[in-house]
Design a protein that fits this description.
Blueprint (H helix, E strand, L loop, with lengths): L2 H6 L11 H13 L7 E4 L2 E4 L2 E4 L2 E4 L2 E3 L1 H8 L5 E4 L4 E4 L1 E6 L1 E2 L2 E2 L6 H11 L5 E9 L3 H18 L8 E2 L2 E4 L23 H8 L3 H4 L3 E6 L8 H8 L3 E4 L6 H9 L4 E2 L30 E5 L7 H10 L4 E4 L14 E3 L2 E7 L6 E5 L12 H12 L3 H8 L1 H7 L17 E4 L5 E6 L2 E5 L6 E4 L4
Parallel strand pairs: 1-6, 2-7, 8-11, 11-12, 11-13, 13-14, 14-15, 15-16, 16-17, 17-18
Antiparallel strand pairs: 1-4, 2-3, 4-5, 6-25, 7-22, 9-10, 19-20, 20-21, 22-23, 23-24
Helix pairs in contact: 10-11, 11-12
């Protein structure tokens, strides 16, 4: 049930309206199934706003967050619809910049990529995710040449659609330009070097960087494969975020890549050389004071991929750079008992009988291959790992990924005035109660029943 249905099923609807003008206004909204021209006020709630949790109301109209001072003092009006949240917390929607699939679908190998993207976009809403970067892992060139144009065309069509689903912020291409000795769950047979630099990259993907930049947001590569940083510079100059990962790079190679424009580290600690006191490798970028302000780093906070102590060390070293990612694969959102895939690799799900946590391993191995975690789980796990505040944890799922992608604050990661009204409603345990897209209710849990009042004031 979307917000339109919630409002027009409200018990107070008829009794609260006695003005002809506003009855006509309501009738028009009802006929068009469109509340966008109505001023909606969320009250009796708290907001995660400007790195604080404050007790205040949230006002939205036309899919955007409104400034109440302008409404009170310039428009001199009250809300058309008022929604009482009974003390719940409104947060900007979560953003997942590394997710391989979910709900039985895989972005790399799905035969019907349009259906795959639609299903995952809808499914993520119940975990508070309002935007994400579908992640395509290392493939052979023929798969890229078949898949990438389809995703490009899908995203072009989506620009004119008003779906109530999580927004796609562009692809994350993870590979195939990664180190064979740190391949993780990637297929060693499809990995490539950057032997001829940019030409190799464009040949493998079947597109120029100028074409890729229109629908690719992040590209993960191992910096030691690009010693001149020619590829890093070209990608970042075009607006694509370069992420360092699946790598045996030393600290100096990492520093040079960052100085050339790289701004992200893919799933810190995983598929890279460990910290060493003589060469901390890529992990050392977190505490390099000359580079710190430039680097973000992804953490899979699922209780499996990264030990809580390691997460705590990273967070304490560079709290403003941590970006929570799920790295979820096709089994996310599903029960156990079937074979899943990440790319073309078969995966088995193992459940720990003590902790009840589920882990994804390449079938017949002990190699972790993506997670089955959801973003709300990752926020909770970050708090338990670091003892950080709820505010600090929410920043890592909202503000930080938005800043990484350059869309903060108006297009993601904030509740600032003028920002898109893409947000989630949660309780203090980060249980998601409802998720809104463009100011409309896109998903709600079965026990969410806010008090809705229609206050049409003449």
């Amino acid at each position: 049930m979307n917000l339109f249905d919630q409002v027009f099923n409200s018990d107070e609807l008829q009794s609260s309206i006695n003005d002809t003008t506003h009855i006509l206004k309501l009738h028009s909204a009802h006929s068009n199934k469109d509340l966008s021209n109505l001023l909606i006020q969320f009250t009796n709630c708290r907001l995660f706003y400007d790195s604080k949790i404050i007790k205040d109301d949230l006002w939205i109209r036309n899919g955007l967050i409104e400034n109440p001072r302008k409404i009170f003092f310039e428009e001199k009006r009250q809300a058309d619809v008022q929604i009482d949240l009974n003390g719940l917390l409104i947060s900007p929607g979560f953003i997942d910049v590394q997710i391989n699939g979910g709900f039985g679908r895989d972005f790399t190998i799905d035969a019907n990529i349009d259906e795959c993207l639609n299903e995952v976009s809808k499914g993520l809403l119940k975990y508070g995710v309002t935007a994400f970067c579908p992640t395509v892992i290392s493939s052979d060139s023929s798969n890229y040449k078949n898949l990438l144009p389809k995703i490009r065309d899908y995203l072009n069509k989506e620009k004119s659609c008003k779906k109530l689903s999580s927004k796609i912020l562009g692809l994350h291409l993870e590979g195939p330009f990664i180190n064979k000795e740190k391949l993780g769950a990637h297929d060693i047979n499809v990995l490539k070097t950057l032997e001829n630099g940019l030409k190799t990259l464009e040949d493998i993907y079947g597109m120029s960087v100028n074409e890729l930049r229109k629908f690719v947001s992040i590209l993960t590569l191992a910096p030691e494969l690009d010693p001149s940083n020619e590829v890093v510079k070209k990608l970042t100059d075009s607006g694509i975020v370069v992420s360092l990962g699946h790598s045996k790079a030393n600290l100096k190679q990492g520093e040079n890549a960052v100085l050339s424009g790289a701004t992200f580290i893919t799933h810190l600690f995983n598929a890279m050389l460990p910290f060493h006191h003589r060469d901390p490798h890529l992990i050392g970028l977190l505490s390099n004071f000359n580079l710190e302000s430039h680097i973000f780093y992804g953490v899979i906070s699922d209780g499996i991929h990264t030990h809580p102590s390691a997460i705590n060390i990273a967070y304490k070293s560079h709290p403003n750079g941590l970006v929570l990612v799920t790295d979820a694969m096709s089994a996310m959102g599903l029960e156990d008992g079937r074979v899943h895939h990440i790319g073309n690799q078969a995966v088995q799900i193992v459940k720990d009988l003590t902790t009840k946590k589920r882990s994804a391993y390449l079938q017949g191995t002990t190699t972790l291959c993506g997670s089955v975690a959801t973003m709300d789980d990752c926020v909770r796990n970050l708090i338990s790992s670091t003892e950080c505040s709820l505010v600090e944890a929410l920043r890592c799922a909202t503000e930080h990924p938005a800043k990484l992608l350059g869309i903060y604050p108006l297009n993601g990661g904030s509740l600032n005035y003028g920002a898109k009204a893409n947000f989630t409603i949660i309780d203090d345990n980060i249980n998601v109660k409802a998720t809104f897209i463009n100011g409309d209710l896109a998903w709600s849990c079965s026990d969410w029943s806010p008090l809705i009042k229609c206050k049409f004031i003449p």
